[in-house]
Amino acid sequence: MAEELNVKEILEQILDHLMPELTIYETTMYFYLFRHSHLTNNSDSVRVDPRTMAVQLGKRMGKQIDHRYLASILKSLEEKKCIRTADVSREGTSYTVILPEDIPSVADKMAEAAMFRDEEEDYFTDAEKRKIIFERDNWTCQYCFEKVTPENVELDHYIPPSRDGKSNKENLETCCSVCSGIKSGRSYVEVAPLLLKNMGERKKREES
Ligand SMILES: [Zn+2]
Question: Which CATH architecture has domain 121-207?
Answer without folding.
Answer: Orthogonal Bundle (1.10)
